[in-house]
Amino acid sequence: MFGCSTTDSNGVRLVEILDLHNLCLLNTGSPTRRTKPNEKLSAVDLSICTPDLASSRSWYTSSSTFGSDHFPIIISSPIRRSPYQKRQPRVKYKLNNADWLAFKSLVESKINDLPELVSGGETNSSKALATCLIESADQIFSVKRNPSNKIPFPPWWDRECMVAVSRRKEAERVYAEDMSNENLDILNEVISTTRKFLRDKSRQAGKIFVLLYLLLRALQKFGQVLNVFDLLSKNLYHRLHFPPFLTNAFLDRLAPPSAAESIYFPLESSLTDDSSSLNSSFSLHELKGVLSHVKDSSPGQDGIMYSFLSHLGDTALMYFLNLINSVMVTGNIPETWKSQEVIAIKKPNKPTNDVASYRPIALSSVLTKIAEHLVKNRLEWFIENNNLIANSQYGFRKSKSTIDNLAILTTDIRIAFSRDEDIVAAFLDISAAYDNVNISILQHKLLELQVPTLLIHFIINLLSCRYISLIVQKDGNITELKRTVFKGLPQGSVLSPLLYNIYTYDLELSINSHINVLQYADDLLFYSVDKSVVKACNSMSSSLNCLNIWLVKNDLDLSVSKSSIVVFSKKRTTPIINVTFNGQSLPLQTKIKFLGVVLDSKLSGLAHYEHVVMKCAQLLNIMKCLSGVWWGAHPFSMKLVYNALIRSVLDYGTFLLDGGSVLGSQKLDVIQSKALRIVTGVMKSSPSNALQVECCDPPLKLRRQFLSDRFLFKSMQFSNHPLHRKLHELNNIIHTSRYWRHKSLPCLIISFRKFLTLHSRIHRSPSLPIFMTQFNSLILDPDIRYNIGVCKQDILETNIRFISSVEEQNWEGWDYIFTDASKISVDDCVGVGLIHWQHKIIQKIKLPPESSVFTGECFALLKALELVILLKSKRTIIFSDSKSALQSLEKSPFQMKFCYPIICEIRDKLLICSQRNYTVIFAWIPSHSGIKGNEKADELAKEAIKDGDIVPYINYCHDLAALPKTHLWESWNDVWLRSSKFKGKHYAEIQPRIPSRPWFFEVKSSKTVTSIISRMRLGHVCTPHHLARLRIVDSNICECGEDIGDLDHIFFSCSQYDRTSFLNSLQSLHVPFPTKISCLLLYPLLYYNVLSSFIIYNNIKM
User: What's the domain of life for this entry (predicted)?
Assistant: First the structure.
């Protein structure tokens, strides 16, 4: 009955029990255990169930034992019952190796069938476009499979694992067909080998996955937002665990019940009288500029990805562009553009039954986001060009950051301490600032600032009467709950930060002029400076009353419980004060966390240093899980992990507090040493200065000065930055104030003095160059040719090919201008040369030594355009051998990471040429390829280094950004030369200068080998000789008993190791004998592979 060949008494009793309890046996007689040769078949594994289940169940055994001696039993049911409904994955396409050309062609063929754009038909056109894109994607792209009835492979599973399992299955099949002792031995050996291989594979990869888990936990603890794109792309809705009973309360927070306001905005009459270019239709160049920098993220409800749009052809893009322009004018915004799907994600370490424990993540349509990007570019340019945002606002503005606020505050505190003054500071929190923005008030402020009508029309229509939906699972069913939103700025929109800055533009104007104001988005800081704390409190109270009036007027409220008062004073006892807001006392604290930096009342920095140490202690545990001394990730990977996790924390804001607590800064040095020891696997006794050189990680004090230099040189591009005036004032006070007699100078003051030593004039402006340039210049599409049929070949052949290419392009009769720039050495000036080929006009210009060749190439293009305008040339080709300069000119200025003033000036000149109908083409040609015009321009550039014109002899801040790194390496080399005389002498003989990269970046070896070689280089290695010096062992004699157990003995004479191959390899490399191990360590790339082979072959650990 069970499948066995015999019957015993236990089997008879089991059958009687089944009959007594009315149970059924599902076994079909198939054996459930693999037996040895000559043994009887065995079915010891039984499956028992009630009769109502037995009729609908099928029973069978798997053909493979998966390395066990029992065959797995599989019981299946024809009826599948799923307790939960499952949604289609939001990111359902495999786009890694997608056929974008086929997708582009298919969309282009369908685009003509879409409905024609008419006023009032924007909703239908938007739906048709979305349907076209999704249907084309369904036809071209493969869909991700997410089968729920299969066990997924572990992440470390690869082709080697598949081969091992296939080999095991084959051995099982052979044994099942011929159950002989020989086949059984082969099967057992294969099973054992496969089991060991898979176990080692999982252990090797396990450390990496421990890192991922711990890193996720660490980021959650430190308040980092999870990658929602990854979360939703894997369809993990069931992991969000949002309690259904919190649904209404959660939606009430996002969309408070309120009556809709009637907002009327007459667009047509306004546009009639407005000739501003910002009210014109968007161009295809603007759209392509936006699409060039966006990356795929989780899509909205329509499922469209950014990459769908960025790979479209011009016909489809024009349809989308016309749709956007129609929406802008008519105000008929499709409902899908105004809808957001909200995902509730639980905050770390928060209770599950509290609605405040969940963070809303809003997902909008990509079509809406692109339109918002276009509007944002124009609105931001208008606001910044007219200087309409408060000067105290540094949040979400180009080239401004939290460090600006912190630098201004700490500098003011130091100035106050130098003058024996106190500062009363109020750190204020506006309650749900973005969610409570009143749309009517926002519209009024946009009109008050005379923002272009077209932009206001789109913004107000988009924000008024929005829709949000929340997906919840209740009783196994998926429910979508919708709400209408009448106030607030949409979460996740690129427009929201800019609109909030506009909403608060008049906040600073309504406050008492005796109070200093700093803003970063919705973080607000008031502080009053005075010798009398009472007077400072009175000024603060007066300003808070003004703030209360402004908040009420603008429909906002202050969260008193989240606001704090701190008195910054150098007195031993902090004065006790009482500051109230609207009748409520603000809590008085001795330290406060402001924009990620903990500031104490004495500005010693100790509180922040302790905060950083606690934060890094957890991150060090992550690194320890990744790598040990003899196992784990390669030092190259560990150095990247250190830079990302540890050094980023050590860097942020610490240079602003340097010069305070020496004890606190020493704690940071300890963190750095611990992390670098984990990276390299060296001993604890290793000298820290040598360890820093080994990892190419400078001392933290020097790095803090480097960060200060980099920040200040970047901020110097703004002529009206308040920090410069304050640093000048502090620099003058330091010489006379008693406060600084026994204190080291702040990093910012040292950086400021470096800035004052620059001899050349510096290009500065009140705002970024992009905002000082005409808008029409920024959206201009320059004609740039990268391939005119010329490549580097034989010089004579290249020149002939260039002439023929010019003839093929029909450029005969055009003016040719060749440009070039040159720099021979670091200390030399940059020479700029250009020649007008027809008129034989030449120019030679000299730029300061701090300038880069890139700046020289751009400057040459600028001078060429000035020559075109001067000569009134109708058709001109400007030849340049700098592809980087032409690519920077081609990029959309709004999406450039760095804003180059020269590029903006070039665009202004191009606009003048366009307005005067001058045709200008830029063409790239290879350098030093024998083209006569290019060779002449190169000759002029080299001559200009010595005798070029020095007007204008000016530095640009993007070039000065390279100076801090130069200063850092110079200072570090000096410190290393001095300190190595007392500590790290052995390492200084091997590495006398700071390398540009660590040696282990170039050598591929195991962690054991790199740890041993690093220890050998540092001179701290577990040999008997060194351990005896540290008094860890009593004798310095090697275990072989022949000689002192130092490195030379182990590698060249110890009888315990086989060194035949080692010595042969050294001889093949022409190493003179006798030699020492210290000589071999001088040349990493030449001898380290030989050392690695010897260490691995003899299994050395020391």
Answer: Eukaryota
CA separation for the pair 411, 423 (Å, rounded): 12
Q: Are 47 and 25 in contact (CB under 8 A)?
A: yes
The first and second tokens of residue 1041, run together, are: 């008993």
Predicted pLDDT of residue 954: 87
The C-alpha atoms of residue 812 and residue 818 are separated, in whole angstroms, by 16
The pLDDT assigned to 610 comes to: 94
* Residues facing 469 on adjacent strands: 341, 482
The pLDDT of residue 777 is 93
DSSP secondary structure string, 616-643? HHHHHHHHHHHB-SSSBS-HHHHHHHHI
Residue 811 neighbours by CB distance under 10 Å: 16
Q: In this structure, are residues 1043 and 1024 in contact, taking their beta carbons and an 8 Å threshold?
A: no
Name the nearest CA neighbour of 1059 among 1085, 1090, 1037. 1090
Rounded to whole angstroms, how far apart are CA atoms 1055 and 218? 50
Under-70 pLDDT residues of the chain: 1-6, 78-91, 145-153, 155, 203-241, 257-276, 474-476, 792-800, 807-808
Going by C-beta distance under 8 Å and a sequence separation of 6 or more, which residues neighbour residue 150? none
Q: According to the model, what pLDDT value does residue 165 have?
A: 86
Nearest-angstrom CA–CA distance, 1047 and 1043: 11
Burial class (CB in 10 A: 0-12, 13-18, 19+), 1075: middle
Distance of CA 87 to the CA centre of its chain: 30
Which three-class secondary structure state does DSSP give residue 423?
A: strand
Q: In the 3-class helix/strand/coil scheme, how is 500-525 assigned residue by residue?
A: HHHHCCCCHHHCCCCCEEEEECCEEE
CB 680 within 8 A of CB 1011: yes
The 8-class DSSP code of residue 5 comes to S
Sort 557 into a burial class: Cβ within 10 Å, 0-12 / 13-18 / 19+.
Answer: middle
Q: Give tens-digit pLDDT for 783-816.
A: 999 888 777 665 556 666 777 777 667 788 899 9
Per-residue tokens: 1063:
């010595």
Residue in this structure with the two tokens 């400076």, named with its chain if needed: 529
Q: Which of 999, 1038, 1043, 1047 is nearest to 1019 (CA)?
A: 1047
Task: Determine whether 148 is exposed, middle or buried from the number of CB atoms within 10 Å of its CB (0-12, 13-18, 19+).
Answer: exposed
Is 691:680 a contact under the CB 8 Å cutoff? Answer: yes
* 78: three-class secondary structure by DSSP: coil
Rg of the chain taking only CA atoms, in angstroms: 36
Give the pLDDT of residue 878. Answer: 94
Whether 816 contacts 837, CB under 8 Å: yes
Q: How many helices (H) and strands (E) are present in the chain, helices listed first?
A: 43, 25
Nearest to 895 by CA among 521, 494, 620: 494
Q: What is the pLDDT of residue 671?
A: 95
Report the C-alpha gap between 186 and 183 in whole angstroms: 5
- Per the structure block, which two tokens stand in for 725? 């005036």
Give residues with Cβ within 8 angstroms of 345, minimum separation 6.
226, 228, 231, 240, 358, 359, 361
Q: What region, left, alpha or beta, does residue 179 occupy, with left being phi > 0 and alpha being psi -120 to 50 degrees?
A: beta
Q: Which two tokens stand for residue 738?
A: 């008693």
The token duo for 280 is 């014109």
The architecture of the domain spanning 769-953 is: 2-Layer Sandwich (3.30)
Q: CA 902, CA 785: separation in Å to the nearest integer?
A: 20
Q: Give the separation between CA 408 and CA 300, rounded to whole angstroms.
A: 41
Domain boundaries in the chain? 9-76, 100-140, 159-232, 277-598, 604-757, 769-953, 985-1098
Query: Cα 689 from chain centroid?
Result: 30
Length of the chain: 1102
Within 616-774, strands assigned E span: 761-762
Which residues have C-beta within 8 Å of that of residue 1009, sequence separation ≥ 6? Answer: 1091, 1092, 1095, 1096
Cα dist from 54 to 47, 83, 221, 683, whole Å: 10, 22, 50, 66
